[in-house]
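retry 2 of 3: previous attempt timed out while embedding zinc ion. Reduced batch size to 1 and resubmitted. Inputs unchanged:
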Amino acid sequence: MKKIFKSIRPSPTKKKISFLKSKTETAKHPLHIIPFGGCGEFGMNLTCYVSNKRFIVVDAGSVFPEAKKLGVSSLIPHVKHNFPKLGKLEAYVVTHGHEDHIGALAFLYNEMPAPIYATPWTAELIKRKFERYNFAKPKIHVVRAGDKVTCFPFTVEYIHVNHSIPDACALYIKVSGAKVFHSGDFKIDKTPPDNKKINYKQIERIKNEGITALLTDSTNSLSPGYGPSEMSVVKPLEKVIQRHKDGRVFIATFASNYWRVKSIIDICHRLKKKLFIDGRGLNDSLSLAEKIGMLKVPKDVLVTRQNLSKVNRKNLVVLATGSQGEERSSLYRIANKEHKLFSVDKNDLFIFSARAIPGNEKGILKLTDEILREGASIVNAKVNPDIHVSGHAYQDELKTLIKLVKPQYYIPVHGTYSLLLTNANLAQEVSRTIQPVLLENGEDILISNDKVTKKKNVKLKFERYYVDSESNHPISEETLNERLQIGELGLVNVFGVMKAQSKKWLKGPFLEFKGLSKTGNAKNANLPQKVQQEFMKELSAYLAKKKTVKTKEVEKESIGILRSVLAKFYNKRPVVLCKIISV
Ligand SMILES: [Zn+2]
Ligand SMILES: [Zn+2]
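retry 2 succeeded.
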């Protein structure tokens, strides 16, 4: 035993040599760490590691935009202009398969392809994304926890961590003497659902190499103590399901949390309930687990659509998507009587085994209102906090990782500014010798000669792109603004055919109003007609003054006149489009 321990720990002299070596190397080519997302905000995690004009991208996530009602499903960082400045892109290195870590990858890859490194579960999720967008197959190298890969000049080692999705890993990134531990999203689960604890042995070995900087997940840095284990939800959830004897049980949870899905399958098996799984995300999660060989669903638990009518309602559990009140999700359609198979019954119980993601509260309230209106009952994490746990480290878990890794510098990532700040203070609580560094999107920190410094006054600017929820096409901020303007202000379209020489209208001009009041109010009625009359009066006066006219000039003048007439009658400046054809 002693011998093995010795071989893992480098001898003190060896350690000295490696530090000396690192100093000469780092002097030549320092490491830059530049986050393009996730630092100072939630979601859209993307961090570039750059050295000697070569770089790797760790994670490429998206975020659900606040403007989702306008037909966009996610917001992604647009780094096309910045990436070439960094040098040659060697690889995309992915920690795990949550949207805020892989949501933008397909779009980035299409613009700047490079090999993708990901664990089996993550790789499969990435592949499916490319398929859904109809993009060409990406080049993915499947790696496993414990593997070390070289993306020259970087070496990246994968370390197993616990999280609310299978196959999540932290990364140990080494380049020209700089040694960085990038935690990714993690928690330290003492009783993990897959029985695989965080790899202490591997972390111990890495620590002994002397870590320059530790980057950690700040999501729960405000939560004191140790977070409860994923397995702690099983008994409370089972109790709630078991106690409900009157009718069906509907459970909503995050589709990506395979552990929760698996627990619900096991509970149904124990309680001899029939389980119907509804929603693409959940079925995707199950088929993925079966494909990877992680799941064997006990016989007679799952019920098919065809056999649903044969199941006693009191014996049926429905696992559905829509814990965030998302429109078009399974639960939303059930609550709003739009679902083909189910509608809410007063004897039903709805369990929300999930937390409300900030920004989604209104949607969830609307959904619960619909359910309660039908007389059904609801159990959520507010009523029973034991039915959901977070997949992110609490304060004591963060401190444990700091103690395990013993970095010289501590860099909180993945969170709003206040979360980063709180997380930074945790390092000081562990040891005064660990120096916290606050890093925000676009800032550049430099690791050279085992020292971390932040480049002053450097903040790279980069755009963000939206993804259209129907077509999945990326759309720019400018395009979304056009959509916003049409939505907020309405649109008026002018169309006409004119004889250029005589300045006579052969057709029109017609005015078409979209999204504007067709009537007006009692004081100011028949607005479209009034606008039309005034517009024609002013346009005719303009044309009368002109000897000859050019189509483009008439179009320009028409837009100007119409804008001022609309402002007068509607007290609003709608979007105006004009097309005049001259013959
Ligand atoms: Zn995650
Ligand atoms: Zn995350």
